[in-house]
Amino acid sequence: MQFVIHYLLICLTIISSKIDMTDALQFEDYDPPTNLDSIQTNFNVQFGRIVPPLQQIKLFSPADWEEFTREWAYSQKDLYTQVVRESGGNDMGIDVAGFTDDQGTKGIWDNFQCKHYNKALAPTQVYVEFGKMIWHSFQKQFVPPRKYYFVAPQGCGMSLSRLLRSPIELKNELEANWGKYCEDAITSTQKIELVGNFKKYFDSFDFSIFASKDPLDLVTEHRQTPFHAVRFGGGLNQRPKPLSPPNIINAKESNYIKKLLGVYEEQVGQTSLTTQTIVQYSKWARHLDKQREHFYCAESLKNFSRDNVPNGTFENLQREILDGVEHLTYATYPDKLTSMNTIISQAGSLGLSANPLISVVHVSDKNGICHQLANDDVLDW
């Protein structure tokens, strides 16, 4: 009898448990999502969502972060005569330096200390960096910078930010933590104690030079550099309207203009044509005007490239076009016009999809680049 009662109690417990679970958990069939508003183009299918630069910088390696900081410093080029990255093993607390004169770290300069952590910087992570700067300047390795910026993708935490806003508090906290974080960490060859003449130097040091750069400001200012589109994607800035040729032919045009006049001389059966006498042949005068438009269109692209893509990108585009047409220069043609038209037509049909400028390159640019190459005596008709 006791066994039966015990069995019934177990069954009631199980039933009660199932009832409680049914009351606590409710299920329904899972239907796949039908809202595809976030996937509107083939770009999304191929490459996924675009990661904003402010998120991308958090994924950089320490070396990439230093390089990004150096690129950012390029946006400050009006403030510096030179921006350098310390490449030696003993950086003495200097990662990226901006010089305002030819004296380097013996003159007026700014220091950018790059720190790449997965959290905002805390005082304990950078006490030693303060120590390096003060000790090595005491040793006359360099004069203290005009400004010393901490540059980190997560920025500075509240504690460090508070210290950076209060030079006196920063000095006191660094002094209190010197033994724990600085004495044995500044160099591997000696213990750096805060005593004697060094203590006097420490007490007189200008702690107001220490500051930080906000990550959002870094990304915003980096957008003004030629490196931004290549590093983060997202496309190039809008290209301005191409330059119009000046009425008076510039000296820099003389060579390709001379070659065009040679083409026209063959067509009209005259020699010694000039830009003044060509006007009597309206067809070829219009042709000359159009070729000048193409040349200046390519010159505009060259100027655009300087501010929007890394150095050498436009020159690579010129080389790609030359590679695409050079084989045609070895053929024999009935006249110079046929030679020129054949080469320029080929240039206009080239894809050039690998060049970072391709999204803003027009057929006129490709034609104009042919005249740039002719101007440099790389092409001839």
* Helicity, as a percent range: 40-55%
Q: In terms of per-residue confidence, which ranges show pLDDT below 50 for 5 or more consecutive residues? A: none
Q: Number of DSSP strands?
A: 5
Q: Any guess at the CATH architecture of the largest domain?
A: 3-Layer(aba) Sandwich
CATH names the topology of the largest domain as: Restriction Endonuclease
Could you say how many structural domains there are in total?
A: 2
Number of helices: 15
Strand count, sense and closure of the main sheet? 5 strands, mixed
The chain-level structural class is alpha/beta
> Termini, distance in Å?
114 Å
CATH class annotation of the largest domain: Alpha Beta
Beta-strand share of residues: 5-15%
Average the pLDDT over all residues and give the rounded result.
Answer: 89
| Alpha carbon gyration radius | 34 Å
Helix-strand pattern, N to C? HHHHEEEHEHHHEHHHHHHH
Shape estimate: elongated
Strand order of the largest sheet: 1-2-3-4-5
Organism: Acinetobacter baumannii 99063
InterPro entries: ABC-3C_CTD6
Protein name: Putative phage protein
Pfam families: CTD6
